[in-house]
Amino acid sequence: MRAIGISLLAVAAALTIVGCTLRQSSAEAPSVQAGSTSSPLPLEGSCKSPDVPPADLARKPGYRQFDVSVTNSIGWPVSGLTQQDFVLHAGSRTFPVTYFREHKDDEPVAIALVVDTSGSMAWKLPIARQSLRGFVENLNRCDEVSVFAFNRQVFLLQPFTTDHQMAAERMEFNARGPNAIYDATNTALRSLERADYPNRKLVLVADGLDDSSATSEREVVARATKDGIPIYAIGIGDPNAPKRPGIPWGQSYGYSGAPVVVGPPNIGMRTLAMPPIGPARPGTDRVDAKSLEDLSAAASGRSFIVPSRGEEEGRSFETAIFAIADNIAKGYTIGAVVPYDVAPPTVKVTVAKRLDLDVQAHPIAASP
C-alpha cells in the first residue's frame, strides 16, 4: 500500500524475490483426493538451508550429510552436544566427523501432516484439532507443510506451502468410514519425495486401527527408509480398550443422512452431520499402540500414545505435539566421508559415553 501507480513489471519483480515461496496454486481445490499435487517452485534467499560445508569438503568423493536427532528417555530433544560427542560407524568401521552444526530452529523442513479421519476417530479429533493448528501456525516461517486426511480414501487438504495460517484453516475434519493408515502414510511419503527441502518429516495422527489399506506396513517402512524420512506418530486412545466398539458414551448408529452423536460424557456431546454415503460407524477408544510404535520405530521416528480425554500421568496430545515440534526444530547436521561400499542407511550415529540417549540419523545430502 505504498504507491498507487505500480506497474505490472514491478509487481512481477517483487514476487520473484519473496523469500518463502508458496506452493498452493490458486486453481487448487481446498480438498482433493491424493494424487493431485502442486508443481514445486524454487525456494530462495533466507529459505535456503544454512548447512553449507566448505566447497573442498563437499566435493570429496563419498561426502555425505546426516540429519541427526538426539532425545532423552521421554522423547524430548537433547541440545548442547558438540562435534566430539558423536561417533559415526557402520559395523566395526568408524568415520571421522568432518562437518558439524547444531540446529537452532533455523533448518528449513518439509513436513507432511497426516490425520486419521476414520469413524473410530470420531470423538478423538476434537482434542487434537486446536493443538494441530497451533503446531502448524508456529512452524519456522520457511518450513513448508502439507496436510492430508484419510479414511478409506486419502485426501490432500493442503499441498506444500509456507502459508501456515492457510494450512491451519484447511484442517476441518469429519470423522467417518474405514481406516487405511498405510495407504495414507505411503501417499504422504511419495509427496515428500517431491518436496523442496532435503530435510523431510512425516507427522501421523491416528489410532492405528487399519482395516482397508492395500499397502502393507513393510512397504511403508521400506519407502521411509529409502528416502530417509522419519515418521512421528501420535496414537490417541486406550491400548486396553475393546477391539469392537459397543454403543457406549451416548453414541448412536445412523444410516445415510442421519446425524451421529459421539463423545464421552465427561467432555460433552457432539453431533456430526453425516452425508448420504452409507452407514455410519461408531467410534472406539481403542488405539493400536503396537502398530504405531512399530511403524515409527522402523522408520527411525518416535511415537507418543496419549489418552482421548484430557491428560493422564503427564501424557496428553498437547505435550506430544510439543515434543514433536521440538524434535523437528532441534537437532544436528553431521557430515562425513563414507566409502562407496557403505550404504548411507547403514551408517549409525551414537553419542559417546551416553547410552541413555536415543540417536536417529537420516542421510540428507551427498557429494555429486
Tags for this model:
Rossmann fold; alpha/beta; disordered N terminus; single chain; four-stranded antiparallel β-sheet; globular; 2 domains; 368 residues; 16 strands
Explain how this protein is built.
This protein folds into 2 domains: 55-106 and 330-366; 110-329, Rossmann fold (3-Layer(aba) Sandwich). It is 21% helix and 25% strand. The chain has helices at residues 8-16, 55-58, 125-137, 164-169, 181-192, 217-227, 289-298, 317-329, and strands spanning 32-33, 63-71, 86-90, 93-95, 99-104, 110-116, 144-150, 154-161, 200-206, 231-236, 260-262, 270-272, 302-306, 330-337, 348-351, 358-366. The N and C termini lie far apart (45 Å).
CATH fold name of the largest domain: Rossmann fold
Shape: globular
Q: Helical proportion? A: 10-25%
CATH architecture of the largest domain: 3-Layer(aba) Sandwich
> Which whole number gives the mean pLDDT?
78
CATH superfamily of the largest domain: von Willebrand factor, type A domain
Count all strands and give the number.
Answer: 16
Helix/strand class: alpha/beta
β-strand percent reads 25-35%
CATH class category name of the largest domain: Alpha Beta
* End-to-end separation: 45 Å
The biggest beta sheet reads: 7 strands, mixed
Round the Cα radius of gyration to an integer and report it.
22 Å
